[in-house]
Design a protein that fits this description.
The complex is a heterodimer of chains A (305) and B (255).
Chain A (H helix, E strand, L loop, with lengths): L4 E13 L2 E7 L2 E3 L3 E5 L6 H8 L7 E6 L2 E2 L4 H5 L2 E5 L10 H12 L4 H9 L15 H13 L5 E5 L7 H18 L2 E6 L2 H5 L4 E6 L2 E7 L3 H7 L2 E6 L2 H7 L6 E3 L2 E5 L3 H13 L4 E6 L4 H10 L4
Parallel strand pairs in A: 4-9, 4-10, 7-8, 8-9
Antiparallel strand pairs in A: 1-2, 1-3, 1-5, 5-6, 10-11, 12-14, 12-15, 13-14
Helix pairs in contact in A: 3-4, 4-5
Chain B lengths: L1 H12 L4 H20 L4 H9 L1 H35 L3 H5 L5 H37 L12 H14 L1 H13 L4 H20 L12 H4 L9 H25 L5
Helix pairs in contact in B: 1-6, 2-4, 2-6, 3-4, 4-6, 4-7, 4-8, 4-9, 8-11
Classes of the chains: A alpha/beta (305), B mainly alpha (255).
Chain lengths: 305, 255
C-alpha cells in the first residue's frame, strides 16, 4: 500500500488473560479512500482489534496510529474524525431518531441541519419523529450509521454491521457503503465473518484467524495468493500410501480426500503418473475451487493452508 | 464548555424516561397522601394551627430525608447508568469525542440536578398539600403567616448535603453493575442497616455511616454533630467519586 494510511497498527498484541492471547502481532494498514474488508471467523479477534482502534479497550502492546497520530496522544482529536458502529446499534429506544442524533450533535459541534442531512443519506427522513423502539432492525442499523456520519467522518469503522439484516437490507447497506465511499471519499473499514457479504464492496481485504493476520492487501493482490495456494483434490484407493508418494507436493488430509499443492497443469499429470506408477487407483484428481469464499475458508480453517 | 455540552447530552437522554416520572410522582406521593389520608388528632391539629407552615414542612422534611430521598437516590443512581447498559450505548458514548472525565462528571451532575429537583418539588408539593388541608379540611388561618423561606432553604440545603455521600456511593454502584437489581439491593440493605444501627441499636458510631446522615441530622440529640456529618458527607462523596472514576478509567473493557 503506497497511499497514505488512515489506520496503522504495529505489532498489536492483546490478551484478556495471560493464557489466552486474543491478538498476536497484528499489523493492520488501511489506506485512505479504501473500503477495507476485515474478515475472520467468529472469535478471531476482529471486534477486539476494532475496539482497540477506537480506544474501547486499553492497549497492552504495540502501537495504534490513526491519521498519522498515536491514538493515546490525541484520543479526542482523532475521535472527532471517526464514525463508528460496533456490532449492535447503540441507540436510545425511548428517544426519536432525531433526538438520538441530537444527543451527539453538540458533542460533535455540527449544525441542526446536519441531522436532516444524515437522515436523508440513510433514507430515514420520514422516520425522524418516530421513537427508535418502534424501528425494525434494518432501520436501527441505518440510524446507527446516520449517527456515525453525523460528524462527517473521514474514517468509518463498522463492526459486523450486517448482522441480522435481511437480503434486501444487505443490498441497501452495500449500496450505502459504496455511496459513502464514492461521494464523500470516506475511508471505511468493515468487519464480517461472511466473505460474500463484503466481497462485492471492498477494495482491500484483511483476513484474521485465531488472532493472527493471514492476509492483507488489495483485491488485485488476492489472485497471486490464490495462485500460491493452488491445490488439487486427490482421492485414491490408498490415501495413506499416496501421502508417502506425494511428499514433495505437501499433501494434507481433507476428510476422505487429500489436498496437494501444484503450480501448473503439467504437475497434475505428474501427480497422476506417480500414483499410477505406484499401483494406486486414482478416483479423483480435481483442482480445488478458486473462489474467494473457498480461499477464505482454506485460510481460516485448514491447518497449514 | 465541553462539560456543559456533555451535561446537555445526558439531560436529553432522560427525556420520556422513568427518571422524570419518578422525580415528579415520587415527590408528590407523600404530600398527596398526607392531604387525603392523614387524620389529624385534636392535639396535633392544635399544634399544627400554632404555626402551620413550619410544622407541616418540618413533618414533610422528616419523611423526605429519612425515607423518600434515600430511596429516590438509590433508584435514580441505578436508572441513569441503566440507560446506557439497556440500550447497549456505552460504546457509542465512549467513542464520541468527550473526555472520560466529562462523561463521568456529566452523569454525576445529572443525578445531582435530579436530586435537587426532587427536593424542590417535594417542598412545593408539601406547601400545596398544606393549602389543600386549609381549603378542604381544616381552617388553619394559613394566610395570617408566611412561610419561612430562609428556614426552608437551610433545611433543604442540609438535607441535600447529608445525602451527597449516599449519592456518590450509589452512583459508583450504578456504574459498576450492569444489573439493575444489584445496586438497588445493596443500597436498600445498607440503608436498612444504617437505620437499624441508629434507631434500633443506638450504635455510638452510627453518625459515621453515610446512609444514616440524613436521619440523624434531624434529631436534636445529634444537632452538635450536624456540621461534622455534613463535612463527612462531602468527604465520603469525594472519596467514592474518586474511586468510581479510577475504576471507570482503568476498566479493561469499557463497553
Amino acid at each position: 500500500m503506497t497511499q497514505s494510511l488512515v489506520i496503522k497498527t504495529t505489532a498489536l498484541n492483546y490478551a484478556y488473560s495471560r493464557r489466552e492471547p486474543i491478538l498476536q502481532d497484528i499489523h493492520l494498514e488501511v489506506a485512505q479512500g479504501s473500503i477495507y474488508g476485515f474478515l475472520g471467523p467468529n472469535g478471531s479477534g476482529k471486534t477486539t482489534t476494532l475496539s482497540l482502534i477506537l480506544g474501547l479497550l486499553t492497549m497492552q502492546q504495540g502501537s495504534i496510529e490513526l491519521f498519522g497520530k498515536q491514538l493515546a496522544q490525541d484520543r479526542i482529536g482523532i475521535l472527532k474524525r471517526v464514525g463508528s458502529l460496533i456490532e449492535t446499534p447503540s441507540l436510545y429506544g425511548h428517544l426519536t431518531a432525531t433526538e438520538n442524533l441530537e444527543v451527539y450533535r453538540p458533542v460533535y459541534g455540527v449544525s441542526r441541519e446536519r441531522i436532516n442531512e444524515v437522515l436523508k443519506i440513510v433514507e430515514l427522513e420520514y422516520a425522524g419523529n418516530k421513537t427508535v423502539k418502534r424501528f425494525s432492525l434494518g432501520m436501527k442499523q441505518r440510524l446507527a450509521i446516520a449517527l456515525a456520519l453525523l460528524n462527517r467522518p473521514e474514517l468509518l469503522i463498522l463492526d459486523e454491521p450486517t448482522n441480522g439484516l435481511d437480503p434486501n437490507g444487505m443490498i441497501e447497506f452495500r449500496q450505502l457503503i459504496r455511496k459513502l465511499n464514492k461521494m464523500y471519499g470516506m475511508t471505511i473499514i468493515i468487519s464480517s465473518h461472511i466473505l460474500a457479504e463484503v466481497e462485492k464492496m471492498v477494495t482491500h481485504l484483511g483476513i484474521i484467524s485465531k488472532g493472527k493476520m493471514l492476509f492483507q492487501g488489495s483485491l488485485k493482490e488476492l489472485p497471486s495468493l490464490q495462485q500460491h495456494q493452488a491445490r488439487l483434490h486427490v482421492h485414491t484407493s490408498d490415501n495413506e500410501a499416496a501421502i508417502r508418494f506425494l511428499q514433495e507436493f505437501k499433501p494434507a488430509r481433507d476428510r476422505d480426500r487429500l489436498l496437494v499443492e501444484y503450480t501448473g497443469i503439467g504437475q497434475v499429470a505428474e501427480i497422476n503418473r506417480i500414483l499410477t506408477r505406484n499401483e494406486l487407483d486414482v478416483y479423483l484428481l480435481h483442482p480445488k475451487e478458486h473462489s474467494l469464499e473457498q480461499l477464505f475458508i482454506d485460510l481460516t480453517t485448514i491447518p497449514n493452508a | 464548555m465541553s462539560l456543559l455540552i456533555s451535561l446537555r447530552s445526558e439531560l436529553l437522554k432522560t427525556k420520556r424516561t422513568s427518571l422524570l416520572y419518578l422525580c415528579v410522582c415520587g415527590a408528590a406521593l407523600v404530600p398527596v397522601m398526607t392531604l387525603f389520608f392523614d387524620n389529624e388528632s385534636p392535639e396535633s391539629l392544635a399544634t399544627l394551627k400554632l404555626d402551620p407552615w413550619v410544622r407541616y414542612l418540618d413533618e414533610g422534611s422528616k419523611v423526605l430525608s429519612v425515607v423518600m430521598l434515600p430511596m429516590y437516590i438509590i433508584l435514580i443512581c441505578t436508572l441513569l447508568p441503566q440507560l446506557e447498559f439497556r440500550n447497549n450505548a456505552w460504546k457509542q458514548v465512549l467513542t464520541s469525542p468527550q473526555s472520560l472525565g466529562n462523561i463521568f462528571a456529566a452523569k454525576f451532575l445529572t443525578i445531582q440536578l435530579f436530586i435537587l429537583a426532587f427536593i424542590v418539588l417535594f417542598t412545593l408539593f408539601t406547601m400545596a398539600s398544606l393549602l389543600g388541608v386549609h381549603f378542604f379540611r381544616f381552617n388553619l388561618d394559613l394566610f395570617q403567616r408566611r412561610p419561612d423561606w430562609h428556614n426552608i432553604a437551610t433545611t433543604n440545603g442540609t438535607i441535600y448535603l447529608t445525602v451527597l455521600a449516599v449519592s456518590g456511593l450509589q452512583f459508583w454502584f450504578g456504574l459498576r453493575f450492569k444489573s439493575f437489581l444489584a445496586p438497588v439491593g445493596i443500597g436498600f440493605c445498607l440503608w436498612v442497616l444504617a437505620m437499624m444501627s441508629a434507631m434500633e441499636y443506638h450504635w455510638p458510631h452510627a453518625s459515621k455511616i453515610p446512609y444514616a446522615f440524613s436521619l440523624l441530622a434531624l434529631f436534636p440529640k445529634y444537632a452538635a454533630k450536624v456540621p461534622l456529618m455534613l463535612w463527612s458527607s462531602l468527604g465520603y462523596c469525594i472519596v467514592f467519586l474518586t474511586l468510581a472514576f479510577l475504576e471507570f478509567k482503568m476498566k479493561k473493557i469499557k463497553a
